[in-house]
Design brief:
Elements lengths: L6 H8 L6 H15 L6 H8 L7 H16 L3
């Protein structure tokens, strides 16, 4: 099912998906890992993610949003 990747549409659809800040990142990682059918352990994920550690927080958020929308629109 195709979804709109327009920022306003994404913000509207995400209003009901609020998690405490301390678990939000873990939920995102779990969902993306599941969608990607990724079988890496947590330690392996951390190792593979090291090149992205220096990204500014706003850039990380934009990149996650972009990639998530691409995943959601895969055939």
């Amino acid at each position: 099912m195709a979804i709109s990747c327009e920022p306003a549409d994404l913000a509207e659809n995400a209003k009901c998906l609020c998690f405490p800040k301390d678990v939000e990142g873990a939920v995102i990682i779990y969902l993306l890992k599941t969608l990607a059918a990724n079988t890496m352990t947590a330690a392996q994920l951390v190792e593979e993610a090291k090149p992205y550690f220096g990204m500014p927080e706003d850039v990380k958020q934009a990149a996650m949003l972009y990639l998530t929308c691409e995943i959601a629109n895969l055939p």
